[in-house]
Amino acid sequence: MANLGLWSYVLGKGGNAEAVTAIRDASLKAADEIVTRTARPWIPRQHDHAGLQLGSNSGAANYGMQLLVANALKADPRYVQNGAR
Prior knowledge:
By secondary structure, this protein is an all-alpha fold. It contains four helices and no strands. α1 packs across α2 and α2 packs across α3. It is globular.
């Protein structure tokens, strides 16, 4: 939930330039890490049931939201094509 407030501040043209830059940079860094992480082959862990974990859809939704917001901050085709493989 904290990210939603931070993104709202940045996308709503928050008045503190230093805060906007810090939030923007952190969001883009997180999106880049997601792109890198999800580019690796998917290998299920042995203790998972078919590689799925409780709340796994929540993780996917969070990744998607992070990538879409990052793309709004700085357009990058990797952010919107990432899940289309």
